Amino acid sequence: MFQDSITLKNRHQKFIKTVSENGIVYGLKSKNGFATSSANNYEDDDGNPIGMICFWAEKVRAKSCAKEEWKKYKPTEIQLAEFMENWCVGMANDGLIIGTQFDQNLFGHEVEPLTLILELTAELKSNGKDLNFRKFDGIEDLEKQVKETTK
Fold this sequence. Notes:
Layout: H1 5-22, E1 24-30, E2 33-34, E3 36-43, E4 49-55, H2 59-64, E5 74-79, H3 80-94, E6 97-100, E7 109-111, H4 113-126, H5 138-149
Helix pairs in contact: 1-4, 3-4, 4-5
């Protein structure tokens, strides 16, 4: 079933709002690590799809995707601060893409990790929220460093 880009973008916006409010992101994990896929909208220099890890704002949505090749995976909670400073930064360094709010048919939004950090920091700041990071002095510091990296 085809899902238009507006639907996927709206689900992504809901992801931003929900994880900013709850401070929790969900991934699918097995004994071999987190569930991965290949991006549809991003390619490397050779035209091959870039690797992607999917994340969800709700445990139930993550669980609905734990089927077929992901059937041995279980929803795993990640604190938002850890997600932003470790996962997003690490995935950007590794050249990976983030998928948000994928559905049981594995349709979802694809976003570059540093772009997602900027979207999350904007949402958190608009709600007057800050996070305790280990490597950054709050949201402003993380945002500043990401912006310097993406210039």
